Amino acid sequence: MSTSDLYQSFNELRNTAVSNFIEPEVIADASNSISQIIGILMDRNSYDIFVPLSGKVASLNIRDFLGIRNITSANPATVGKIIPTLNSYSRIAEAARLMSLYRLRALPLVEKNEIIGQISAKRIVRAIRDTMLVSHIPKTSTSDIMTPSPIVISQTDKISSAKTIMKRRRIDHLPVLQGHRLAGMLTSKHIIEIMLRSERIGRKSLGIDEIQDRLDIAISGIADKNVITSNTDDTLRSVVDLIVSQDSTYCVIEAIDEVQGIITYRDIITLLGEKVEEEIPIFLIGLPDDPLDAELAKSKFANLVKLLKKIYPDIEQARCRLKIRDIQGARKRYEVDANIISTHRVTSYVNVGWDLAKMFDQMSDSLKKRMAHRVTQRQRESRYSTRPAP
Question: How many CA atoms lie within 13 A of 179 on its CB side?
C-alpha cells in the first residue's frame, strides 16, 4: 500500500470528534507542590497533568520536572506552561496537531471554563491501531514513520548524563547499549522516580538519601531490561499493535542486532498529519496556530520538495514536523524536523529558531547542498566501479 493510501485510510479518524475518545482528566490544584503533583502522576500512571488557572489551563509533564533542582520546594507556576484546550466538537486531527506542536501526550476538554475530561495520545494511538486492523494495512514499513538513528546511551554512563540529554534534547526515551547491542531502555519516568525522596520511592532509593548521589548511579541500575523491539522488516501495523498490546510508549527498531530507529506515540500520531497535494506525498504535523505561519510553513516546505524532486527524481515522499521549544510572550521558538525520503536513503534535517521563514530558507540551502554532495558521491562511486580492469 502506498503512503497516500495509508493517509487516506485515516480520514474518518481525523474527522472524528474528540468527545468519542474522552477520558477522565488528570488535574492538580495550583496550591499543590511539585512532589505532590508527581505523586498524582505516578498514582494515575499518567505523563501529563493539568492545573486550572483563572480561565486558562497550564500543563506539566514528566519531562518538565527533569530541569528542577529541588522537587520538594519548586513552584508549579514556574514549571507549567499555558496550553490550548479542546471542546467536545474538536476533531482528532486538531488534537494530534496540537499534541505534536506543544509536545504533549494529553489535552484537556473544556466546557464553560471547566475541565470535563481529556484526550490522550495513548487513546489516539489505540484508535490508529484499530483503524489499521480494519483497513488491512499490512505492507507499510516501519521506516515510514520511525525516528532514525535515535540518541543512545551506554549502560555505564551516569543517570545524571541521561537526565541532561533528555532535558536538552526534549526526549523521553533513551535506548541503553552494552557495547553496540541493545541492553535496556531508560525513560524520563525512571529518572523522576530516582529524584523523588526516599520515602516516596522506597526500595528504588537504593539506600541513598541525597538526590545528587542517586543521579551518580550507573544507568544499568534503573534501566528497564525488558525492551519492546521490532525488526526493520516488520510491518508498521504489527509494530503499532505491539505498542498497544504491551501498553508501551515506544518500540525500538533493530536490524542485525543494531538499533536503527525508534517509534513513539509522537511518531505514530504523525500519521494524522496534514497532507499537501503535490506530485509526491508531502506530510506536515504540528502546524502553527497562526494561519499565516501555518500557510508559510506549508508553502515553503512544498516549494522546497518540488525543487528537490526536479533535481533528484528518486525522492518518494517528504515529512516535516514542527514543535514549540519555548514561548516568550507572543513569540514562539520552533524546532523544525524534516525527512526527505528517496529510494536510496532518508535525508534528515533539524533546526531550532524564532523566525520560521528564515528557518525554512536555511533548511532549503542545507538540504540542497547535502543531497547534491551525495548524488555527486554516488556518481563517482559508479564511475570507479565500472572502470575496466587494467
Answer: 3
Residues paired with 175 in a beta bridge:
185
Q: Is residue 70 part of a domain?
A: yes
| Residue ranges making up the domain that contains 87 | 3-121
CB 132 within 8 A of CB 240: yes
Predicted TM-score of the model (pTM): 0.81
pLDDT along the chain (390 residues), means of 10: 71 93 93 87 92 89 84 73 91 93 93 93 95 75 83 92 90 92 93 69 45 79 92 89 95 91 92 78 87 88 87 84 85 89 82 91 85 57 43
CATH code (residue 220): 3.10.580.10
Question: Do the domain assignments include residue 134?
Answer: no
Q: Is 389 exposed, middle or buried (0-12, 13-18, 19+ CB in 10 A)?
A: exposed
Q: How many domains does the chain have?
A: 3
What is the C-alpha to C-alpha distance for residues 343 and 250, in angstroms, rounded to an integer?
Answer: 26
SS3 127: helix
